[in-house]
Write a structure and sequence with these properties.
Elements: H1 7-16, H2 23-27, E1 38-42, E2 52-58, E3 61-65, E4 72-74, H3 77-85, E5 92-95, H4 105-108, H5 125-130, E6 135-138, H6 153-158, E7 162-165, H7 181-192, H8 196-217, E8 223-231, E9 234-238, H9 241-249, E10 252-254, E11 268-270, H10 273-279, E12 283-288, H11 291-304, H12 309-312, E13 316-320, H13 330-342
Parallel strand pairs: 4-5, 4-6, 6-7, 8-10, 8-12, 12-13
Antiparallel strand pairs: 1-2, 2-3, 8-9, 9-11
Helix pairs in contact: 1-13, 7-8, 8-13, 9-13
């Protein structure tokens, strides 16, 4: 499966990756934290000898780390990537859902020896527990649904592991998540892994890229956007959540109102084609998981909406599905890609 199905998406991804920082050098630096929800407590009993314990609040739960985790699992390639970029490669004892999207070229080879716990779904309870992790990092809370046969957060805790869920993937924030939530995740994980300076560098790069987009689109007249998900003949509109904030950050005006009743409990709602036709968006954004899915979706949109401005002006924007998951650097990629497609003359 290919992470980016369109040339623009591939170009955006190629530009954004930064060199991996050195964990060893950063680990020796003083721990300085400022983000809400993160705290450092001095203590001589810290097992790694750092003298500091880290406590954060994540999805309403308090996580405490007396020492640096040494057995870490990334529950999605996007989380595995973030962990590697934070310098935790040597601590990774498992990666999951590896077929959902490939890792970027600059780190794929480094991750080749990390044990694969699952390919297209979260790992089974026994497989995750067998990896004996002390930290599990996930994009959403779904990956810990016991009813699906996955290890619950409580079961992990009973087996000596703590679960960190991307801020935008917490159940109570899924509909209001923002692109900048990933900055919170970078800072929190940097604190947990005792690499705050590495995290700060990564955050500064992400913030600079977002600032560049904001500066580029400046006073350009805004274009209207409909964000949709197509599966067969089923059509859903995206009106809230991280997906909607990506559109807003890229300078698009969503034709669907996040405060509308249909998005009160979930960020997406099934709609009829007439809903798109009546709004006549300047652009349509859709997620893809492969070149085939992009081709099929483009064909559906072109057949269904031939008279809509987005189709007539060839503004059908394909975004890798994995770049829309909470807590991923791909959120920044998506902002850049959509902004460039909406306002090509500004870049």
């Amino acid at each position: 499966m290919i992470r980016s199905a369109s040339p623009a998406a591939a170009a955006s991804r190629a530009r954004r990756r930064t060199p991996l920082p050195a964990l060893a050098a950063a680990a020796a630096l003083p721990l300085v934290l400022s983000a809400c929800g993160t705290g450092v407590t001095s203590g001589s009993d810290a097992a790694d000898g750092s003298g500091e314990a880290v406590t954060i609040t994540n999805c309403g739960r308090e996580l405490s780390f007396d020492s640096t985790p040494t057995s870490v699992v990334g529950m999605m390639p996007s989380q595995t990537e973030l962990l590697i970029r934070l310098g935790a490669l040597d601590s990774l004892v498992g990666q999951a859902q590896t077929d959902v999207s490939p890792l970027p070229d600059d780190i794929a080879d480094q991750a080749a020896d990390i044990p694969v716990l699952s390919t297209d779904v979260p790992p089974a309870r026994e497989d995750l527990l067998a990896a004996a992790p002390d930290l599990v990092v996930s994009p959403t809370e779904y990956e810990f649904t016991a009813e699906q046969g996955f290890a619950s957060i409580e079961q992990l805790k009973q087996n000596g592991a703590q679960a960190y869920v991307a801020t935008g993937g917490c159940l109570d924030r899924r509909n209001t998540a923002e692109v900048t939530d990933v900055l919170t995740d970078i800072e929190n994980l940097g604190a947990i892994l005792r690499v705050p300076d590495v995290a700060e560098e990564l955050s500064q790069d992400a913030e600079a890229r977002l600032s560049d987009v904001e500066a580029a689109i400046g006073d350009v007249p805004r274009r209207t956007v409909a964000q949709v998900y197509v599966e067969g003949n089923s059509l859903q509109a995206i009106g809230a959540g991280i997906e909607a904030d990506i559109i807003a950050t890229a300078g698009g005006e969503n034709v669907f109102d996040p405060d509308a009743p249909e998005f009160a409990d979930f960020f997406a709602a099934e709609i009829t084609p007439e809903e798109i036709i009546s709004r006549d968006p300047d652009a349509i954004v859709f997620s893809v998981s492969s070149p085939e899915s992009e081709e099929n979706t483009r064909d559906y949109l072109e057949r269904t909406f031939p008279d809509v401005a987005a189709v007539k002006n060839d503004r059908l924007i394909a975004v890798p599905k994995s770049d829309l998951f909470p807590g991923t650097l791909g959120n920044i990629d998506a902002v850049e890609l959509i902004a460039q497609e909406l306002y090509p003359d500004a870049f």
